[in-house]
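for the recovery benchmark. tokens below, seq after
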């Protein structure tokens, strides 16, 4: 019994592998749309190939684009990392801290806002996204829901 415990120690002491496989996020792939308060939203995610997913978001109101963002989820030495580039700004990295079958959470505690980005697919097949972080001394969040388009 003691020998079995001693032999098991290297297995138990092994650090967890980073959440490094973006192909586990294939459920995000597709063209997603939604409308809220006259704002037309679209989010497009490529298939996970070559260790990465590429994405784009666009908001249109009254026939004019009011916001856009480019992003990618890429394999890095730290694990799967979400790079956000709103309005073509320099990309900000958010490292995966949770990756389930239909849910992923990315985090960057050094960033002002947001510090967390969450995506999940609900039972009805809608894609949700939420950003969270500190603003004005309290934690706030914003959430979006899209359904599969075209």
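predicted aa per position
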């Amino acid at each position: 019994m003691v020998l079995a415990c001693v032999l098991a120690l290297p297995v138990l002491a092994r650090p967890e592998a980073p959440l490094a496989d973006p192909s586990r996020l294939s459920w995000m792939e597709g063209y997603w749309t939604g409308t809220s308060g006259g704002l037309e939203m679209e989010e497009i995610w490529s298939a996970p190939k070559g260790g990465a997913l590429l994405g784009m978001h666009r908001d249109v109101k009254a026939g004019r684009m009011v916001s856009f963002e480019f992003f990618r989820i890429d394999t890095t030495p730290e694990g799967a990392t979400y790079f956000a580039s709103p309005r073509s700004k320099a990309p900000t990295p958010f490292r995966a801290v949770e990756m389930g079958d239909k849910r992923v959470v990315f985090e960057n505690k050094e960033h002002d806002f947001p510090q967390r980005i969450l995506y999940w697919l609900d039972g009805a097949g809608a894609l949700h996204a939420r950003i969270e972080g500190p603003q004005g001394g309290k934690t706030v969040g914003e959430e979006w829901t899209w359904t599969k388009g075209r």
